Amino acid sequence: MREFELLKHVYAANPALPARVTIPPGDDMGALRLETPEVLVTVDQLVDGLHFDLATTPLEKIARKAITRNLSDVAAMAAVPAGAVAAACLPRDFGDARARRLFDLMRLVAQSYDCPLIGGDISMWDHPLVLTLTVLAESRGVVPVLRKGAREGDVVCVTGELGGSLLDDNGRVHHLDFEPRLKVARALASNPATRPHCMLDLSDGLARDLGHLCDAAEVGEGERLGAELFADRLPIRPIVHNVCDGRAPWVHALADGEDYELCFTIDAARAAKLPRAVAGCPITQIGRIILRAPGSPAPGNPASGNKPAAKISLILSDGSTRSVDDLGWEHHGP
Ligand SMILES: [Mg+2]
Fold it and tell me: Were 87 and a residue from 132, 133, 152, 206 both cysteine, which residue would form a disulfide, CB within 3.0 to 4.6 Å?
């Protein structure tokens, strides 16, 4: 199939688009009329063999993940999706019917999040399927929440459950079926009583991603932030407890990645009044932001006093503390 025909099919199927789409797909460019002058942009690739396995993953799930992975980034900023454009490199043997279906499915998923597909590009090549999606988003009255902003003493919170994103849980596999946390992010950020100091979405595992929030913080000269987490407070996805791979459930919660939950920090006074669920989404307080020991990370560093040198430490149920800086996303390709 020629690219033109496929795109024509995709656009012909476009139902009534939101009023903000002022130039619908099919022209050289699409256009959106946005409510706010500042536009947020994110782009993400979904690669066969890296983010999914085309041989074993239903097309619906691939289409869904292509959209929701981007929307998770929109949620992390507490923004609202406005529209999207998609680019695909399809293997030559992919087939016309499957190509049409893939784009139809992406369009439907995008539409279900009020994020119309307003343009696209398709190429054929001799390599695995690559889907690239760019999403435009708006702040619509809520200042975006950035990664910087963590402060010493902040409480660390996460939405939902962590770990086991690749496990089949009665036909549901989290990394393909997750719900981007758009509503809870907006609800948190728009209310002064709950607005986070900083926030990101968890893609590489809590241990690594929380490290990004610590690194991004604007602190005094020579100061470094870290975090102390409590193992028994982690909201571990129940199916993780069925895994017998010799790793403790908390290792999965901290390291598996692709949770697509939100991690944010908020000062202790407001955390004390934070509800257990916001916009129907559970919120768990799992630890706090601390000032790390200055100087080299060494046990016995005389400058360290009682402060830990580790960036992220975990306090286990027996009271012992260990660094979890070595944990994080490991490529788990198919
Ligand atoms: Mg992200």
Answer: 132
| Mean pLDDT on 108-112 | 94
Q: Which long-range contacts (CB under 8 A, 24 or more apart) does 245-254 make?
A: 249/163, 250/314, 250/316, 251/327, 252/162, 252/163, 252/164, 253/162, 253/163, 253/206, 254/162, 254/163, 254/205, 254/206, 254/207, 254/229, 254/314, 254/324, 254/327, 254/328
| DSSP assignment letter at 130 | E
Spatial separation of the C-alpha atoms in residues 153 and 266, rounded to whole Å: 9
Sorted by sequence, the CB contacts under 8 Å of residue 9 that are 6+ apart come out as 100, 103
* Best CA proximity match to 252, nearest among 180, 309, 202: 202
Multiple choice CATH, 3-138, 3.40.50.10540, 3.60.20.10, 3.30.1330.10, 3.40.50.2300: 3.30.1330.10
Cα 202 to averaged position of ligand 1 atoms, centre (Å): 7
Tokens of 78: 């507490």
User: What CATH code is assigned to 155-323?
Assistant: 3.90.650.10
Q: Give the predicted TM-score (pTM) of the model.
A: 0.92
Q: How far is the CA of 193 from the centre of ligand 1 (A)?
A: 24
70 Cα–ligand 1 center, Å: 8
Ligand 1 centre distance from Cα of residue 181 (Å): 12
**Ligand 1 centre distance from Cα of residue 173 (Å):** 19
Mean of pLDDT values over 130-142:
97
Q: How many angstroms separate the alpha carbon of residue 273 from the centre of ligand 1?
A: 27
Q: Which residues in 215-236 are b (16+ Cβ under 10 Å) and which e?
A: eebeeeeeebbbbbbbbeebbb
pLDDT for the residue numbered 331: 45
Contact 210, 203 (CB under 8 A): no
Neighbours of 143 (CB within 10 A): 12
Confidence band for 11, pLDDT divided at 50, 70 and 90: low
Asked if residues 85 and 27 have their Cβ atoms less than 8 Å apart, the reply is: no
